[in-house]
């Protein structure tokens, strides 16, 4: 009973996290803020959902596989976000700046 409640709590929390991240992808203004939202959503939302699935599966081989998947996502998701952001920056995509901020060397 407790494992089932924890399972649903983690799955719902992860789903809400992914939903909020999806809304952030639509509403945020530039590539860098969007990649930040996507990276956090991908990492944390997937973690919460996978932990919920682990509680649902109990102590079986499925739990071990889910844990391995969780570890793989923890290792690769932040790296993928960083690689995308670095590639965009190297291609010349400048971040959107707030009021009163300037890029170095842009003194008109």
UniProtKB/TrEMBL annotation:
It comes from the Bacteria. The keyword Thylakoid does not apply. The keyword DNA repair does not apply. This is Monovalent cation/H(+) antiporter subunit G. Keywords: Membrane, Transmembrane, Transmembrane helix. The chain crosses the membrane at residues 6-28, 40-62, 68-89. NCBIfam families: CPA3_mnhG_phaG. One of its GO terms (molecular function) is sodium:proton antiporter activity.
């Amino acid at each position: 009973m407790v494992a089932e409640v924890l399972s649903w709590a983690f799955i719902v929390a992860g789903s809400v996290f992914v939903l909020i991240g999806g809304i952030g992808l639509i509403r945020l203004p530039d590539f860098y803020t969007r990649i930040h939202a996507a990276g956090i959503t991908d990492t944390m939302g997937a973690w919460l959902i996978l932990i919920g699935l682990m509680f649902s599966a109990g102590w079986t081989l499925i739990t071990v596989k889910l844990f391995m998947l969780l570890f793989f996502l923890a290792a690769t998701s932040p790296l993928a976000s960083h690689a995308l952001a670095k590639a965009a920056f190297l291609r010349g995509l400048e971040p959107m700046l707030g009021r009163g901020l300037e890029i170095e060397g842009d003194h008109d």
